[in-house]
Write a structure and sequence with these properties.
single chain; Aspartate Aminotransferase, domain 1; 6-stranded antiparallel beta sheet; 26% strand; globular
């Protein structure tokens, strides 16, 4: 599945000074993990943001923002941002900062272990 390489590069460049960043391919796109926690990514042509779930109601009123419904049901704390919602540098940095702020207090998902491994 194709995704917006230009947007991926925009995020990559913005995270260059952040420690412990890893890129992973998931959801048919790219996800940037910060400190082993999902933080921000790109799915098709939208930015995927992991934010504080308490912010959902506030951000969903912003232009270009919609609830992530990747599994068919809304996922609290995850939103998609269209190009319309991040055209300016200020808008883009707003979303990036929300993701990084929440990442600092988010819990990492538990590592899955394969059968027979301890």
């Amino acid at each position: 599945m194709a995704f917006d390489e230009k947007l991926v590069n925009r995020i990559r460049e913005s995270l260059v000074d952040i420690k412990n960043v890893e890129e992973k391919f998931m959801f048919g796109g790219v996800c940037f993990m910060v400190n082993d926690k999902m933080c921000i990514g790109v799915v098709k042509d939208e930015m995927m943001c992991r934010i504080d779930p308490k912010m959902d109601e506030i951000v969903l009123e912003k232009q270009g923002c919609r609830q992530m419904d990747f599994t068919g049901k809304p996922m609290k704390g995850f939103v998609f941002i269209s190009d319309e919602g991040m055209k300016t540098k200020k808008d883009f940095e707003y979303w990036l900062s929300l993701c990084l702020e929440f990442n600092a207090k988010a819990k990492a998902s538990k590592k899955k272990h394969g059968k027979g491994k301890k």
